[in-house]
Write a structure and sequence with these properties.
Layout: E1 8-10, E2 16-18, E3 22-23, H1 31-42, E4 47-49, H2 57-71, E5 79-84, H3 91-105, E6 110-115, H4 123-135, E7 139-145, H5 149-158, E8 165-169, H6 177-186, E9 189-193, H7 205-214, H8 218-228, E10 232-233, H9 240-247, H10 256-263
Parallel strand pairs: 3-4, 4-5, 5-6, 6-7, 7-8, 8-9, 9-10
Antiparallel strand pairs: 1-2
Site (Lowers pKa of active site Tyr): 83
Family: Belongs to the aldo/keto reductase family.
Protein name: Aldo/keto reductase
């Protein structure tokens, strides 16, 4: 269990990934983005998650370079994730997309590269490309995002290497218990995107009550619930005080009764697209 912001989980291939990181979904290129990445590194974060489709890899790269320099850290101290977009799924295209992400981020390698969405008929070729990149040592770990159980089963029929991560929408109204059990049995680490349900849970009475009992914010309670469920989490924020506050989740513990109360909020409710029914 994570007791510190820099604690890691060991992925199936032995690579260590921080339990907690910064997400930059919908943060546009510019000083705000660069400063958010720098603030995260300065305040102890060691994991940054971006994607080609966010169109902000260059700013993330700048934030990483400046942040590492100012903190006196090396590239190896940071865990950086990006994802290949749907239009680039295909063996050659995916390899080219990886190189393009590296170029924009101004990095020599990525720690984790993910297939962003399970586009039918395309994700297997893309996975072969990820396996190639992995075997060539160009990326430390490979995985998927938004894959349901049947997508994972389909992928693993022909895969030489199992995904190490499955990053999915995950929050108290979408607890994904079956998917989590399946991933656990397969040695695939679950990771949460949109852990705070884009702010829609911050006034929830049950969560407010639990937060009050611990003198914590609702956001901190939700992020703590992620960690106690063994789920890697990457909350998004651009404001330094919020980036710091989000990470202050290692000095309290939810009781098993509180964990059950939060689990019981599940409604299988998504704020993002349905992985079984998307058209982009």
């Amino acid at each position: 269990m994570a007791n510190h912001l820099q604690d890691t989980t060991t992925l199936r291939n032995g690579v260590r990934m921080p339990w907690f990181g910064l997400g930059v979904f919908k943060v546009e290129e510019g000083p705000e983005l660069v400063n958010a990445v720098k603030a995260a590194i300065k305040n102890g974060y060691r994991s940054i998650d971006t994607a080609a489709i966010y169109e902000n890899e260059e700013g993330v790269g700048t934030g990483i370079q400046e942040g590492l320099e100012e903190a006196g850290l090396s590239r190896e101290d940071l865990f950086v994730t990006s994802k290949v977009w749907n239009s680039e799924l295909g063996y050659e295209k995916t390899i080219a997309a990886y190189e393009e992400s590296l170029r924009k981020l101004n990095l020599e390698y990525l720690d984790l590269y993910l297939i962003h969405w399970p586009v039918e008929g395309k994700f297997k070729d893309a996975w072969r490309a990820l396996e190639t990149l992995y075997k060539e040592g160009k990326v430390k770990a490979i995985g998927v995002s938004n894959f349901q159980i049947h997508h994972l089963e389909e992928l693993m029929k022909d895969a030489e290497i199992k995904p190490m991560i499955n990053q999915v929408e995950y929050h108290p109204k979408l607890t994904q218990k079956e998917l989590q059990e399946f991933c656990k049995a397969q040695g695939i680490q679950l990771e949460a995107w949109s852990p705070l349900m884009q702010g829609q849970l911050l006034d929830h009475p049950v969560l407010k009550e639990i937060a009050g009992a611990h003198q914590k914010s609702v956001a901190q309670v939700i992020l703590r619930w992620d960690l106690q469920n063994g789920v890697v989490t990457i909350p998004k924020s651009t404001k330094e005080h919020r980036i710091v506050q989000n990470s202050q989740v290692f000095d309290f513990e939810l009781t098993s009764a509180e964990m059950d109360q939060i689990d019981a909020l599940n409604e299988n409710l998504r704020v993002g697209p349905d992985p079984d029914n998307f058209d982009f």
